[in-house]
């Protein structure tokens, strides 16, 4: 049985918590968490350090609330979805009638990588709907721009208000429709410069070698490995599902390596592509883009007439405003 | 005891030599056998008596031919079409023992086997044997070069066989599934496995028919530069069929990352680098 504002509902009850002050934040967050703990529902906090501290100071001693590191949880959207789905499966397998989670993206998520977090907010309406989850996504309106707040209202079906009410978001758009026309990714100025490497119709092995040659010396370690994995999967996809010609371009800057894989096709029809695995990988595929999303620090999909481009960023994906 | 240059592999003691010009095999095999003679091994040239290579050896090593250190052996006497891979390898294991007992340091063989292979089934049967021969090479003082005429067999058939050798001269071979060094795992996997080499990889796994030990099937993967997610799914299915957990020992960190994303129950990456 579910308690609180989600009582009587099935699946995912996805709320935005937009606050303009710490008091407004606590007025919603604390009753939400205390209510969950008192009802014996698994209750989870995935906030940044500052807001987690505010909450911790207000919770009654001994309240059964789990704190996750917000920074780790929200490293990459597809990985956050995978991690939360595993958590939800585990908690509900243990008999939980409802799970409560409050999470918060940080200022760093609302810059040049905001587009994939906006897609995340839309996609989780479906990705978490298999479980009785009530979550609040907190956004500090002193930090989030009006444009970000606009996307939050389009991706969250409900809004939790500081007066204790829970209201439908009038701007909400069904996730598949939203994801068919998501916000544009921030252009990377590197793309306007001459690439370090440009190969037409590369094999996956040639693409890996090119990506490794650029990213290896510059970034090394998991960042370079991740780019190599992603480039390999995307070139394979482009040859398999896209249309010729397939082109790989790689750019290098001091703090990042950017690669684009472009083909002449229309790109995947699945609006959730990249954020959710589209299959088990044994049939028509669907795992390549999802793996790329979990191997790079930003992935952007771009559709133009006669071309589909995936842009991968390894290293620092947070461009200055 | 290895040979330098031309071949790609950790030890050049079991070489797949693919050729378009028979002369290149004869030249390589002559050098390979001559190295064996110099090292005190018994050497066998498995070829018809009238073969060019046999003639050269008779010219070059008349004394060794007389005392049996160099032998020209009829292919019909060494390769028995009906024999399974184990029986076929047993023949060479016994011959290695006999060479050791006669005071040689080991046995070294050169054989052009093209004429024995007619059609994909015989190629597959021979490839199975080659995997077991590869194990013998790693375990005993036995070494061999196997010649394959690509014009007769086709490039695809040669690749099927070549990827089961520790060394080959086949250009562009994406990976190698060969015997592990003594004390190692069930086999050694090196190179890169992606969509382009997937069918070849699936075929190699079936041909090698690796057997788990104590519920684990360990692949020495320090030389595995890349495996895409489909390769890992294939290994997972392969391990499940054998009711085992497949361990990729020493694989790259990237392989561990993809395996973790896939949440494979039957694949474990150990000691990622």
In words, what does this structure look like?
The complex is a heterodimer of chains A (321) and B (273). Chain A is α/β, with parallel strands linked by helices and 321 residues long. Chain A folds into two domains: 4-180, P-loop containing nucleotide triphosphate hydrolases (Rossmann fold), CATH 3.40.50; 189-315, Histidine kinase-like ATPase, C-terminal domain (Heat Shock Protein 90), CATH 3.30.565. Chain A is 37% helix and 21% strand. Chain A is built from ten helices and twelve strands. Chain A has helices at 22-38, 49-58, 70-73, 77-93, 114-127, 146-155, 175-180, 204-218, 221-241, 288-293; strands at 13-19, 43-46, 66-67, 99-104, 133-140, 158-160, 166-168, 197-200, 247-252, 256-263, 298-304, 307-315. In chain A, the strands form two sheets. A seven-stranded mixed β-sheet of chain A has the order 3-2-4-5-1-6-7, with helices on both faces. Chain A has a five-stranded antiparallel β-sheet with strand order 8-9-10-12-11, covered by helices on one side. In chain A, α1 packs across α2 (49-58), α4 packs parallel to α5 and α5 (114-127) runs parallel beside α6 (146-155). Chain A is elongated and about 60 Å long. Chain A starts with 12 loop residues before the first strand and ends in a 6-residue tail after the last strand. The mean pLDDT of chain A is 95. Chain B folds into two domains: 14-172, Rossmann fold, CATH 3.40.50; 178-270, Transcription Regulator spoIIAA, CATH 3.30.750. Chain B has helices at 22-38, 52-60, 62-67, 75-78, 85-101, 119-139, 150-153, 155-162, 198-208, 229-241, 253-262; strands spanning 14-19, 42-46, 70-73, 107-112, 142-149, 167-168, 175-178, 187-193, 216-220, 224-227, 245-249, 267-270. In chain B, α1 packs parallel to α2, α6 packs parallel to α8 (155-162) and α9 runs parallel beside α10. Mean pLDDT of chain B is 92; it is low at 1-6. The chains are: A alpha/beta (321), B alpha/beta (273). Chain A binds chain B through residues 82, 203-205, 208, 221-222, 225-226, 228-229, 232-233, 236, 239-240, 281-282, 287-288, 290-291, 294-295, and chain B through 174, 192, 194-196, 226, 228-230, 233, 252-254, 257-258, 261-262. Chain B: It comes from Spirilliplanes yamanashiensis.
